[in-house]
ATP-NAD kinase (Amycolatopsis pretoriensis), 289 residues
Amino acid sequence: MSLAPRVVLVHRRTELAELLARHGTRGQAEFFLRTRGRDLAEVTEADAAVRAALAAASAAIPLDWRRGEVERADLDRFLFTPEDVVVVVGQDGLVANVAKYLDGQPVIGIAPGAPGVLVRHPPAAVADLVRSTGDVEHRTMAELTADDGQRLLALNEIYLGHAGHQTARYRLGVGGGPAERQASSGILVGTGTGATGWCGSVWRERGSALHLPAPGEARLVWFVREAWPSPTTGTTCTEGELTRAPLTVEVESDRLVAFGDGLETDAVALTRGQTATFVPAAKTVRLVR
C-alpha cells in the first residue's frame, strides 16, 4: 500500500512566545516592551493571528492524510519525505528558510495577515491548494560547493565572509579566468527571488548596471561588499552574473563562513586554501501559485 500524502506545517515561534520564554511572565514582557515604546497588545494580536492561521491550516488538511509540524529552529533536524506537501505559515523569509531542506516538494505559502511575495494565500485556501499542487512556479536557488564536499543552498542569497565581520581575504575568479586577490567585507551571491532583498539593496546603493534576474531565471548575480585596494589586493572584479560559468573563491583568511538566507547557525566553514564554487542550483523551489 502506498502512503497517504503528508502535509507538513512550518512556522516559527512568535515574538510573544519568545518574549515569554525570555522574561517569564506576561507582566515582565509588557514592562520590557513599554520601556521601548511598544505595546503588548500589538504583539498579542500578531501572536493570535499566527495561531489562528495555523489552526485553520491544520483543520483544512484532509482527514485521511498524514500530518507533521516543525518550527524554524528545528528545520535542520526534520526529515522531509518525497510525498510531503509543505505549508509555510508566516512571513516570506520562512519560505526561504525551509527551501534548502526540500527536494521538489510543493510549497504553499500562507499569510497570517497581509499577503507577501512568497506567502500569498489566506489560510482558508489550504483545503483546495493541498489537493491541487500542480500549478507551481519554479524559483531558482543559489548553490555553493566546497572542495571538501560541503554544500549549501539558498533561495535568496548566500553570503561568504568572516564570521566576526572582519576583513575577508581570498582570490576570486570567474569562469576559469585569471583570479584577483581581494580584501573585502564579503561576497553576496543572489537569485531573482533575493533581488528584492539584500542583493537588491547593494545593487541600488552602488548604482549597478547589472540586470537583476527574474525569480525563475537560471541566472545569479554576485557582489563584493566594500572591496578596497592595497599593494596586494584589487577592486576590478566586484560584481557580475552567473549562468554556466561558475564563480570561484579561494580562501586566504584563516577561516571564512558561508550561510544562506540569514541562517547563520547553519553555516559552511572554509579554511585557508579551500575553494568554494558558486553556480545556479540544479533543483528549484516549487512554489504553488
